[in-house]
Amino acid sequence: MRTRRSENGCVARSVITRREFVRFGAATLAVSPAALMAADAAGGACRTAGERLRIGILSDIHLKVKTNKAKFVRALRAFRDERVDGVLICGDLADNGVVPQLQYVADAWESVFPHSQGVDGSHVERIFICGDHDTGGYAHRVSFFKCGTWLMKHYKCTEAELNALSLSRCCAKEWQRIFGEPWSPIVHKRVKGYDFVLSHFTRKGWNSALGLDAFLKDFKPDPSKPFFYAQHRVLRDTACGPKVWGQDDGSAKKLLSAYPNCCAFFGHSHQTAVREDAIWQGAFTAVQVPSLRYVTHEPEHANKPNGYSAEQGLMLSVYDDRMSVRRLDFVNGRPLAAAWTIPLIGGERPFVHERRRAAAIVPEFPAGAKLAAKVREVERKKGARGKDLELTFPSVTGLHGGVRAYDYLATVTIESGEKSQKNEKRFFSPKCDRSPEADTEDVNVRFSLDDVAGWKSLRVSVRPREIFGGLGAPLEVDV
Predict the structure, then answer these.
(1) Strand 385-393's sheet: what is its strand order?
(2) Which of 335, 359, 383 is the last residue of a domain?
(3) How do residues 363-392 score in pLDDT, each as one tens digit?
(4) Residue at which a domain ends, from 297, 329, 359
(5) What is the pLDDT of residues 310-335, one digit of tens each?
(6) What are phi and psi of 146, to 5 degrees?
(7) How many CB atoms lie under 10 A from the CB of residue 331?
(8) Is 178 found in the same domain as 144?
(9) How many domains does the chain have?
(10) 187 has which bridge partners?
């Protein structure tokens, strides 16, 4: 049985047929997430029958100093233990776009994959591209992050010497020296017979993929296989929807739309891989890669979890008939959510956003769950006093059946004399960017009541929500 929203927002239930289950894959339909994630974890280092390619995928690692490479090394070790054939990083390798930071990336790689070899001596391909923090010239734009003074102090150099270290001035030369391979705006690599087309961020083509149109004129990918494309900026109007920040001008999407066997990866927006809309299918397939350094959240939420506590990445496995994208929490080595299974035969495209929105399973609070609400006096700035409505309710993880909530919609209806006022806010759970096992503590959030005068009663409702907007049944309480 599955629950979905109809076009008018009503909830309907329908049975998942065996044919649907086999055709689209269990992960696609989000059936029994706990069992699926356990299977993902068990899949680990063992290469399953028919697996042709395994690629670890990261983005936005933002190495700044030698001492902040722990997350990167931890992710690389996880990939090494999974016997990957290569590691793709979708840009922003360095935090401030200076040569020493790019060297930190190379040193961390060498410490885990010496001479680009895995534990069994097999070659592991380095599939790195530049982002705006690498070649955008951030080092000497003091107005951006006010980093120029800090960098001069850290590297004990003058402004002129700092400018000379800027990758925006010497990327091709230093890339060749540090990584031992040529740099150009478009790079073509082959890994175990699969094509990777890589678009480096450039200042001249900052809002597009410089040189991609010329490259594709002579590019003849095998139509029987997927090929992979990577850039840093968000492919416009694809994964994470039209409102996500950092989108390009749309020209790359137009060019790639001629290739239904293309699977594109991009970073830049730091969106969490927990988002079910972080994969998109239209004329081709596109996937938003989360930042390893920190994830960000949409501004319309009333609370802001600590994005620096997250360590997220992806694992791509390619078979003859399908691809699997696992979403990983490197902190505890657990899946963030069920894997996305992408069919390669039969023309099925299960990740079209309109289709997923219509069939999305809504999250539900566990049986017996309760909502607690309490009015508290609090101290504001400069000693002022105020009142908050504090709400506490259980996190919906999907570990014991059902699906995980992306966030929660809280509604407070305020009765004050003859008038009533409704106030709605969306909240995240405290560990929403970690695996479900790490997100089991209660959600505790607050509404300010400072602007509410003379209220007599409050009716409070909280509903778990999935990313496409479907809402589960509410918990309610009167105050």
Answers:
(1) 372-379, 385-393, 443-448
(2) 359
(3) 999 999 999 999 988 888 877 888 888 999
(4) 359
(5) 999 999 999 999 999 999 999 999 99
(6) 50, 45
(7) 17
(8) yes
(9) 2
(10) 198
Q: pLDDT for 54-95, tens place per residue?
A: 999 999 999 998 888 999 999 999 999 999 999 999 999 999
Give the residue among 342, 240, 253 at the shortest CA–CA distance from 289.
Answer: 240
Residue 118 lies in a domain: yes
Same domain assignment for residues 143 and 253? yes
Q: Residues 306, 280: contact at Cβ < 8 Å?
A: no
The CATH number of whichever domain residue 431 belongs to comes to 2.60.40.2150
Q: What are the residue ranges of helices labelled H in 31-147?
A: 33-43, 70-81, 99-112, 132-135
Residue carrying structure tokens 């691809």? 323
Nearest-angstrom CA–CA distance, 82 and 68: 23
Provide the H-helix boundaries in 148-303.
148-155, 159-165, 167-179, 212-218, 251-256
The position carrying tokens 């078979």 is: 319
Helix (H) or strand (E) holding 62: none
3-state DSSP call for residue 288? strand
Query: What is the spatial distance between Cα 446 and Cα 448, in angstroms, rounded to a whole number?
Result: 7
Task: In whole angstroms, give the CA distance from residue 437 to residue 273.
Answer: 16
Cα–Cα dist 264/209, whole Å: 13
What is the C-alpha to C-alpha distance for residues 207 and 73, in angstroms, rounded to an integer? 31
Beta bridge partners of 237: none
6-9 CB contacts, 8 Å cutoff, 24+ apart: 6/358, 7/358
Predicted TM-score (pTM) of this structure? 0.89
In a domain, 366, yes or no: no
List Cα–Cα distances, 206 to 163, 216, 234, 239, 332, in angstroms: 20, 19, 11, 19, 36
367 assigned to some structural domain: no
Angle between helical axes of 99-112 and 70-81 (0-180°, round to 10): 30
- Give the end-to-end CA distance of the chain in Å, rounded to a whole number: 36
Instruction: Quote the domain boundaries for residue 275.
Output: 2-359
230 and 156 in a common domain: yes
